[in-house]
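As a warm-up, study this chain.
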Amino acid sequence: MGIASAALALSVTACGKSSTDSGSSSTASDSKATKAAIAYDIGGRGDQSFNDAAYAGLKKAEDELGVKGAEAEPSSGEGDADKVARLTALARAGNNPVIGVGFAYAPAIEKVAKAYPKTTFGLIDDTSVTAPNIANLVFNEEQGSYLAGVAAAKASKTGTVGFIGGVEVPLIKKFEAGFAQGVKDTNPKAKVLVQYLTQPPNFDGFSKPDLGKAAAQGQLDKGADVIYAAAGLAGSGSIEAAATAGKWAIGVDSDQYNQAGLASYKDHILTSVTKDVSDSVFNVIKSVKDGKPQSGEVRYGLATDGVGLADSNPAYVKMTDVTAAVAKAKQDIIDGKITVKTAP
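Now compare it with the structure written out below.
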């Protein structure tokens, strides 16, 4: 589906409504309401992770701000032209802001933002393109990943832990860097196995659970007993593999212990590195509704709970040596005593 016309078959829908309930059939009262849209990253809504966190922010805006929300799903193997068509359709429909979920939207947002200068575009996880009407919503993923490394090192009984990256790009290398540093700072003798599922321009590593499952199985076979995956939907496969083997998994982006689609494996999800994607989406929508649209870099870090480590699993909470080490590391990062690397 590498042509623009395919992208226009998009599934741009009002949240919870069919596509026929949005667009040209909107009533006059609808047209006066603030309309906001999100265009999903690879894997789409239902990934139990990154995209679902973005949807939660849109849903919150609907519930609390009375915003009329729209969503657009990606197509398999699409290119920048497809993303341009998708964002253009959303902007033309009167949505403001229009939010691209993921760094892959950067080239398309750069182009479409010029064509719609009165529309605010939110771009999650990228600062490479800037404009007065672009809000770059970014996170200190390495900080949350460092805490995951501390937890993994303390919880591991074998001294071998694993990191699985969806696609080997700079953003995911931040996750790897923070995790490995946290592990080594906690247990210098620990071994960190690292594997990436795909290399760009192949982004299947963010969307295919079977790839994550196979990679995790390989790491389990090498003695890993805690595996952290930053791989979007593919990460669910690694969680399944770890849980099936009776080992620990560490989730990413959303608190995956609480994701319904992963309920069968939740007892083995030790914790998750969370990114407040939900609030970043909500905040940019609210800024537009309030007439003070966000612009430029909007960063979410550990000090403001923009990233963090979830404590939903009661088993994790009971590991007082683990939670104490994580709490100390968190404070040391906030106080500047620990500087977390952003590249391995």
